[in-house]
Write a structure and sequence with these properties.
- The structure is a single chain.
- With about 120 residues, the protein is α+β, with helices and mostly antiparallel strands.
- The protein has 2 domains: about 5-60, no CATH class; about 65-125, no CATH class.
- The protein has helices at about 65-70, 95-105, 110-125, and strands at about 5, 10, 15-20, 25-30, 35-40, 45, 55, 60, 70-75, 85-90.
Amino acid sequence: MSKLLYNAMRTPDGTIIESRHRHDYVTHLDANGKEYMVDGGLDYVRCSVHDDQVDLCVYDDDSHSLIRKTLAWGTYGKNGDLPLTYILLKDMETDHIQACLDNVQAMYPQVRNAMQNELEFRNEV
């Protein structure tokens, strides 16, 4: 069974809403007057059901070229003293990816696999 790596949708006015963690309920009032929502982070997908939204979810069995452009890692900087920012897997430095793999125990298995695949991808290029 495939596992989530990116839980998001695009609304008709072009707004992308993303749920980053469990119970991260994100809403958007679209220009068309409808409210759109997404929830669940990487644990589950719960979203509004309008016929004009676009599902942008990415799973671990999608292509690595898609995964590396959508999977974002939250970081507080090298020393942990900066505000939280998100960086796409494709933009992470190789040493950063390796440090995450070596030091982060509480990581979703599908995220760990994507990071390992990114390192292999970089070695092949």
